């Protein structure tokens, strides 16, 4: 990789819409069987630097575009000093766009979304934990399941902007119905409240299959049903709106790409409760049908084109950065978060070699709240533990309470944790 590179197409929006209280970040953490050794972890972070050049970067500001520039020194791991996803300010982003934290037996990495998405972050964290275990215990971890060998060089396809490579010739329209929006009393302190539901993976998979659904489809259907019930409590009659879940799609599976940078697109899937009263079975079927209709290479390429082609406009390319920022803020306010109620981001079953499974008890994935969404939901499975993390920036716990209660009513055991004392 060069000493500097352009932001990928998905990343262009994030610096433009950040503010003093909000940055688009996410977190992946691994809970180990023993207490973390900070010195060993620091060495592991250093060892990964040559293999992941697109991660060890700072955000720079030019006259016309933001850019990523390689940093000379790997960031030092820090003790967990506050709550997860503490605000990552511009000063920190100018030093490094990710941080590594540790607490007792937990290793966590928190990423500014300009450098990667959930899948890229998963590969990095697994590689980091694998290297840490090798240094700590003198073992050899097989380089499988996405784990990278630090002896290898980064391949060009790992650092490419895959959006540009796989864009279609005809853009798809961005028009969608505006949906019901969750609301609540802002916390005001900046604290990110997290309630985690721990579910046996085999029980969750079994229940999803009963509804002829994937785990993501089943959880999305339960969430849609939950939000419909909430809307019915707060809004009646013609003022009700459609309820949709924003589901990030890993485009690497669609196109066979190998990039470690952002390559995710969001599909908004749901129902309009004004048309009829939907059962959970019907919502699962709607999710399945809508996914089958929209998740094709041709349509996803057209969705990519809707994002890539405007950025290639000659007038926009020569416009000063502050003009670009205003334009992107306007686009985001109109299309970015008005078409979904909440994200459900599912990393799926985290694949690890058996030797790592002996040392890793659990994986957590936490996506921060969006600019206007007060709630978010993210999921990861490790072994027979699926962690469903519900994060919020408001005081009310109504959504989490209703959602996990609905899962329990369906016969799914849920153990609930919180980051609040």
Architecture overview:
The protein has 2 domains: 4-149, 2-Layer Sandwich (Chloramphenicol Acetyltransferase); 172-297 and 337-418, Chloramphenicol Acetyltransferase (2-Layer Sandwich), CATH 3.30.559.30. The chain has helices spanning 13-17, 38-48, 90-93, 118-137, 162-165, 201-210, 215-234, 251-255, 280-294, 297-311, 314-318, 321-336, 354-357, 398-409, and strands at 4-6, 25-32, 57-61, 66-70, 78-79, 98-103, 106-112, 193-200, 243-250, 264-271, 342-349, 360-367, 375-382, 385-392, 415-418. The chain contains 14 helices and 15 strands. Strands 10-9-11-13-14-8-15 form a 7-stranded mixed beta sheet, sandwiched between helices. A hairpin with a 4-residue loop joins strand 3 and strand 4 (66-70). It has 421 residues and is α+β, with helices and mostly antiparallel strands.
In which range does the helix fraction lie? Answer: 25-40%
CATH architecture of the largest domain: 2-Layer Sandwich
Say how many strands there are: 15
Count of separate DSSP helical elements: 14
From the alpha carbons, calculate the radius of gyration and give it in angstroms: 21 Å
Distance between the termini: 45 Å
Note the run of SSEs as H and E: EHEHEEEHEEHHEHHEHEHHHHEHEEEHE
Mean pLDDT across the residues is 92
- The 3D shape can be described as globular
CATH-assigned fold name of the largest domain: Chloramphenicol Acetyltransferase
Sheet bearing the most strands, described? Answer: 7 strands, mixed
Side-by-side strand order of the widest sheet = 10-9-11-13-14-8-15
Question: Any idea of the CATH class of the largest domain?
Answer: Alpha Beta
Low-pLDDT ranges? none
Residue fraction in strands = 15-25%
Q: What's the CATH superfamily of the largest domain, by name?
A: Nonribosomal peptide synthetase, condensation domain
Secondary-structure content class: alpha+beta
Counting structural domains, the number is 2
């Amino acid at each position: 990789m060069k000493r500097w590179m352009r932001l990928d197409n998905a990343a262009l929006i994030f610096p433009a819409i950040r503010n003093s209280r909000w940055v688009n970040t996410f977190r992946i953490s691994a809970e180990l069987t023993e207490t973390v050794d900070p010195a060993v972890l620091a060495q592991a972070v250093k060892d990964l630097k040559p293999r992941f050049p697109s991660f060890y970067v700072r955000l720079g500001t030019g006259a016309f575009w933001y850019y990523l520039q390689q940093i000379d020194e790997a960031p030092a791991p820090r003790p967990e000093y506050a709550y997860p996803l503490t605000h990552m300010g511009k000063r920190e982003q100018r030093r490094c766009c990710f941080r590594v934290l540790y607490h007792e037996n937990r290793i966590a990495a928190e990423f500014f979304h300009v450098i990667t998405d959930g899948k890229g972050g998963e590969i990095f964290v697994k590689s980091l934990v694998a290297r840490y275990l090798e240094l700590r215990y003198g073992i050899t971890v097989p380089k499988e399941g996405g784990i990278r060998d630090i002896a290898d060089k980064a391949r060009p396809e790992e650092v490419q902007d895959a959006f540009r490579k796989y864009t279609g010739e005809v853009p798809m329209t961005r028009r969608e119905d505006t949906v019901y929006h969750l609301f609540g009393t802002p916390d005001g302190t900046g604290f990110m409240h997290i309630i985690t539901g721990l579910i046996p993976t085999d029980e969750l998979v079994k229940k999803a299959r009963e509804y002829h659904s994937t785990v993501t489809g089943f959880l999305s259907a339960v969430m849609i049903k939950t939000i419909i019930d909430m809307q019915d409590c707060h809004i009646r009659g013609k003022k009700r709106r459609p309820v949709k879940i924003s589901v990030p799609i890993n485009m690497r599976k669609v196109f066979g790409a190998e990039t470690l940078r952002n390559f995710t697109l969001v599909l908004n899937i749901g129902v309009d409760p004004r048309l009829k009263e939907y059962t959970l079975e019907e919502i699962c079927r709607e999710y399945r049908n809508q996914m089958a209709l929209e998740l094709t290479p041709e349509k996803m390429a057209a969705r990519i084109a809707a994002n890539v082609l405007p950025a290639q406009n000659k007038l926009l390319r020569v416009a000063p950065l502050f003009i670009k920022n205003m334009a992107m803020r306007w686009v985001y306010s109109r299309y970015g978060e008005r078409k979904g109620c909440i994200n459900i981001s599912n990393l799926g079953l985290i694949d690890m070699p058996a030797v790592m499974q002996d040392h890793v008890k659990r994986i957590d994935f936490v996506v921060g709240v969006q600019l206007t969404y007060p709630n978010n939901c993210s999921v990861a499975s490790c072994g027979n533990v699926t962690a469903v993390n519900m994060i919020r920036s408001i005081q009310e716990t109504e959504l989490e309470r209703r959602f996990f209660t609905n899962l329990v009513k369906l016969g799914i055991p849920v153990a609930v944790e919180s980051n609040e004392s």
